[in-house]
Inverse folding.
């Protein structure tokens, strides 16, 4: 049981770390001389990198705000689920399930799915309408975007694990 508990804790911490990296890192859409995330655009010249924050003056800013909000909410919910799990670990009676932890983790899963889905659906609108930089339509999805989808599957799996898990000796 102790090995299972260690595996569940490590899996949850990995999910939270993936969410943090996907939310913070600047690699949702990358090209040869630029990288764009949900927060800023960075242009890479031969000598330096020039980063510009994405603000309300850009078209499709409200779309990126929805992605920002859902990714932040998913990260916060994943961390809250971990603390609820730790509290339930010591407070639940033997044989009870970690239902509250599973529900909060499932909400984190849904939030990351919503954020990544909005970005997937609206990516062409964001990058093809001279949103920030005319050459951003010539890029590809970066590793932060991929990590967002991986963290979706990790949070879904961990919410299912918490649903099935019973407190045993």
């Amino acid at each position: 049981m102790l090995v299972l508990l260690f595996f569940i804790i490590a899996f949850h911490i990995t999910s939270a770390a993936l969410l943090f990296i996907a939310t913070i890192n600047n690699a949702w859409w990358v090209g040869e001389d630029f990288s764009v995330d949900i927060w800023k655009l960075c242009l890479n010249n031969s000598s330096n990198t020039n980063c510009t924050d994405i603000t309300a003056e850009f078209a499709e800013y409200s779309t990126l705000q929805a992605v920002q909000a859902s990714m932040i909410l998913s990260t916060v919910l994943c961390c809250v689920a971990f603390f609820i799990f730790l509290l339930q670990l010591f407070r639940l009676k033997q044989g009870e399930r970690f239902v509250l932890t599973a529900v909060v983790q499932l909400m984190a899963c849904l939030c990351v799915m919503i954020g990544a889905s909005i970005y997937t659906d609206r990516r062409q609108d964001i990058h093809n309408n001279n949103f920030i930089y005319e050459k951003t339509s010539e890029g590809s999805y970066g590793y932060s975007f991929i990590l967002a989808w991986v963290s979706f599957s990790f949070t879904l799996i961990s919410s299912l694990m918490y649903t099935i898990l019973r407190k045993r000796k």
